[in-house]
Automatic annotation (TrEMBL), chain A:
InterPro entries: Ald_Fedxn_OxRdtase_dom2, Ald_Fedxn_OxRdtase_dom3, Ald_Fedxn_OxRdtase_N, Ald_Fedxn_OxRdtase_N_sf, OxRdtase_Ald_Fedxn_C, Tungsten_al_ferr_oxy-like_C, W-dependent_AOR. Its cofactor is [4Fe-4S] cluster; tungstopterin. This is Aldehyde dehydrogenase. It comes from the Bacteria. Keywords: 4Fe-4S, Iron, Iron-sulfur, Metal-binding, Oxidoreductase. It comes from Geothermobacter hydrogeniphilus. SMART domains: AFOR_N. Residues 6-207 form the Aldehyde ferredoxin oxidoreductase N-terminal domain. Belongs to the AOR/FOR family.
TrEMBL record, chain B:
This is (4Fe-4S)-binding protein. InterPro entries: 4Fe4S_Fe-S-bd. It comes from Geothermobacter hydrogeniphilus. Residues 9-40 form the 4Fe-4S ferredoxin-type domain. It comes from the Bacteria.
């Protein structure tokens, strides 16, 4: 019997309309865990680098995390993986909500889509019954609207629906997949779903999911719940409110937006507004939020209330979480009322809340600087908010200039030319980032921005405080109950970290320490992404309930795979390296690993080179960021090095087995 | 008829506090698995969150006695501007709706307040306090009537679903097969 996972994937060939239930190999789970890990293995095995994002040969995989559907609190994420039209690299965006557990209860760990449907369809999975159904009547419908219509049509109020809106149908490069209160937004995976002709995947499951060692597993879950309660009563002192508690940042609950609005850049990631947050604004925004918000809500089996139901007067209700609350507002230099209204439309259209507002602000900037002209925006309203609504419509419909803007600032600027590229200035690997620009280089963030395969800063940070605490006493206090550290040396790094003086940024933490910190933070995120655990209870906040010391126990007791910290660390490293290998095979190199050029005012090029060199070395990558044959062999990824050598990515000499050489030398 | 003290066990439900996470369903189905906690399947849960997020309806309901399909409670209620079907409040395991029936057999499920535990586990797992456990002593008049046991409840459901004749035929058939 398989535990925690079902042992079956659903393989759907949309070109032929063929549906298969395929048993998976438990050995693969042991090596790659599940979720992102096994998704990456499938992509490596079946999507060679020649395959374009919009090719029928590109796979679109919806993977439930290994522990989704078990009672593990907050474990509910669907990891969607494909080749991104935006970056041409692997995208592995994730969504919380209710979809992944439902898929497990239906009896599957993944839905693997290949081919392309000639007509718009949706997929209906009800336990053993799986159908591809006509969706032509849903063309152009909003993502939330679609979910409601399908549930009515099937008379299945309990079904969970992951759907795309018009942006996905029209292959907007930053189209998202929406699922009730959550969305998989980054990397344009909604565009791939649209390209495959799939409007929605609908799931309803009523099957059992087994646990290997039940009592032990429940004991662990109860420990986590107790710890969550403890942390609710003991927020971390000395850090800003969004970092003091657990969950993803409680943007729907928090009214004080001084930090975000005054530290993040407005418009096309251009302007910082010091002194913006006045009493008047605070009062106005609080009222807007209080009126709009009907309830704070959660994802499956999670007590954190990171999301909210939002009802703006005259607009259909939708659900929101986290930072989209501010992105449109700040992109347009407007207020929260506008932000919540346009986000309703954007959610129905299904676009990424980071990229969409920045692309729109970029278009306005090009117009204001004469690179685009009024003729490029026929019929555009005069008022600021009206212009943003107009641009959103043009983009998701790919009409006029919207057709270029739908490809994101990087590709749009290339096409527009005439100096437009100077304005696409907030990208990493061709994707718009959070508009956060600061004064001096932060070496930890430099590494995360540059080398993060997820290409999204908020998806790697966590665990280690973002800045030193002002006094040594406060730091010593912080490390006292810091049980989450993999090793006590991290406590010392933090205790010695000063705001000013010798032990301050950018030369402290030292290069070696920075690599160590980033490696730990990244490891935790990769473990979450395989288990389907929300980062909000694990890799993202300080002192979370899940960590490297209890995760192996969860995997052992839940999935019945004997696990310890070392083995888990090795597994995470294995599929992390595999994710990189996929991107390396698609051409990614050191030259691509850099934050936006003007992210920090004060840069330290020499230090940055040292950081990259040292991090690559720690990871077992060569100077160009390519995993070496030796490190691949250590991870049991010989098939990757063979492929690299065959393609000339690694030289022949790098394949040589050093132990064999040594033996030969000794023999002589 | 006699009178005696009885402990009334109740789960108080505050729908305003429900965050819709369904942790109650998760732990309920896990607790009632055989062996305990060995599997999870909210479709077997004896508590269900009836929810319709876009209309802001979140109503946790736990399974009570069995009711026949002809139940007259089909009214609509409007509370705080939201419309509820009366079924949303009813604890009955009833043949006309999906909740509180075993997914494979269709047999009714009933809340047992997690017998043997200090409090029902759904209450323990509801960290947002939408569920609270109440226990009170009450003087009750006990009618001298046997409460139906599980087999009876099950049989009654089957009779309601398939008719008595069909059920008798099946039993006869099964008896023949076994002999």
């Amino acid at each position: 019997m398989r535990y925690a996972e079902t042992g079956y994937n659903l393989e759907i060939d949309l070109s032929r309309g063929n549906i298969e239930k395929v048993a998976t190999d438990p050995k693969e789970t042991e090596l790659y865990l599940g979720g992102l890990g096994t998704n990456a293995k499938l992509i490596w095995d079946r999507v060679p680098p020649e395959v374009e994002p919009f090719s029928p040969d590109n796979l679109l995989i919806f993977g439930a995390g290994l522990l989704c559907g078990t009672p593990a609190t907050g474990c509910n994420r669907t990891i969607v993986s494909t080749i991104s039209p935006q970056t041409r690299l692997l995208a592995f965006s994730m969504m919380g909500g209710f979809w992944a557990p439902e898929l497990k209860y239906a009896g599957y760990d993944k839905v693997v889509l290949r081919g392309k449907s000639p007509d718009l369809v949706y997929i209906w999975i009800h336990d053993d019954k799986v159908e591809i159904r006509d969706a032509s009547h849903l063309r152009g419908k909003g993502a939330i609207e679609t979910a409601e219509l399908i549930k009515q049509e099937l008379n299945q109020p309990k079904a969970q629906v992951a759907a795309i809106g018009m942006a996905g149908e029209n292959r907007v490069y930053y189209a998202s997949i929406e699922q009730g209160r959550s969305s998989a937004s980054r990397g344009g995976i909604g565009a791939v779903m649209g390209d495959k002709g799939v409007k929605a995947i609908v799931v309803r499951g009523t099957r059992d999911l087994n646990i290997a060692r039940p009592e032990e597993f429940l004991g662990l879950c109860n420990e986590v719940l107790d710890y969550i309660k403890y942390r609710e009563e003991h927020p971390i002192p000395g850090v800003m409110p969004i970092l003091a508690g657990l969950g993803s940042p409680q943007e729907m609950k928090v009214h004080d937006e001084k930090w975000h609005t005054e530290n993040f850049m407005w418009g096309n990631s251009r302007e910082r507004r010091k002194g913006f947050w006045t009493d008047e604004i605070a009062k106005e925004w609080t009222e807007t939020m209080e009126k709009a918000r009907t309830r704070l809500i959660s994802c499956f089996n999670c007590p954190m209330k990171c999301g909210a139901t939002i009802s703006m007067p005259g607009l259909p209700t939708y659900m929101m979480k986290c930072f989209t609350k501010l992105t449109y507002t700040m992109g347009a230099f407007s207020d929260l009322d506008f932000g919540l209204r346009i986000a309703q439309k954007a959610t129905e259209y299904g676009v990424d809340g980071f990229s969409a507002p920045q692309v729109m602000a970029f278009a306005i900037e090009l117009l204001e600087n004469g690179i685009l002209s009024k003729d490029d925006f026929p019929g555009m309203p005069e008022d600021n908010e009206g212009r943003f609504f107009y641009l959103l419509d043009m983009i998701v419909r790919r009409e006029g200039i919207g057709d270029l803007l739908a490809n994101g600032t990087y590709w749009a600027a290339k096409e527009i030319g005439n100096g437009a590229e100077e304005f696409a200035h907030n990208n990493i690997k061709k994707t718009e980032q959070l508009p956060l620009k600061l004064s001096m280089l932060n070496p930890i963030y430099f590494l995360m921005y540059s080398t993060g395969e997820k290409i999204n800063i908020t998806q790697i940070e966590g665990q280690f405080p973002q800045a030193p605490f002002p006094t040594r006493e406060a730091r010593e206090e912080f490390v006292k109950d810091w049980i989450q550290v993999p090793d006590d040396r991290f406590k010392q790094y933090f205790v010695d970290w000063e705001l000013r003086g010798e032990n301050s940024m950018p030369f402290y933490p030292t290069v070696e320490m920075c690599c160590d910190i980033v490696d730990w933070q990244e490891r935790m995120h990769y473990i979450d992404d395989a288990l389907g655990q929300c980062a909000g209870l694990s890799s993202f906040p300080l002192k979370p309930p899940y960590h490297i010391h209890n995760y192996p126990k969860f995997i052992s007791a839940g999935a019945g795979i004997e696990m310890d910290e070392e083995k888990l660390t090795a597994a995470a490293k294995r599929y992390r390296t595999l994710v990189r290998a996929i991107n390396i095979r698609r051409g990614m190199r050191r030259k691509d690993e850099k934050p936006p050029a003007n992210h920090w005012k004060k840069r330290f090029p020499e230090l940055e080179e040292q950081l990259l060199d040292a991090y690559y070395k720690l990871k077992g990558w060569n100077r160009d960021g390519i995993p070496t044959a030796e490190s691949l062999r250590e991870l049991g990824l010989d098939y990757v090095s063979e492929d690299f050598i065959q393609r000339g990515i690694l030289g022949d000499d790098e394949a040589a087995d050093p132990t064999a050489n040594q033996q030969a030398a000794t023999a002589q | 008829m006699t009178s005696k003290k009885k402990t009334i066990k109740n789960i108080k439900i505050d729908v305003d506090k429900c965050n819709g996470c369904r942790a109650c369903e998760v732990i309920c189905s896990s607790f009632h698995a055989m062996p305990k906690y060995s599997s999870n399947n909210p479709a077997r849960s004896r508590i269900r969150v009836i929810h319709d997020p876009l209309r802001d309806i979140y109503v946790p309901v736990y399974a009570g006695e069995y009711a026949v399909a002809e139940c007259a409670g089909r009214d609509k209620y409007v509370i705080d501007g939201k419309e509820y079907d009366e079924c949303a409040f009813c604890r009955a395991a009833c043949p006309s709706r999906e909740e509180f029936k075993e997914p494979d057999s269709g047999l009714p499920l009933k809340c047992d307040m997690c017998e043997g535990e200090d409090e029902p586990l759904c209450v323990k797992w509801c960290l947002v306090d939408a569920l609270t456990y109440e226990e009170r002593e009450e003087e009750v008049v006990v009618e001298e009537e046997d409460t139906p046991d599980e087999i009876e409840i099950g049989l009654e459901t089957l009779i309601n679903k398939h008719g008595l004749d069909k059920l008798l035929d099946t039993v006869e058939q099964l008896a023949k097969d076994k002999s």
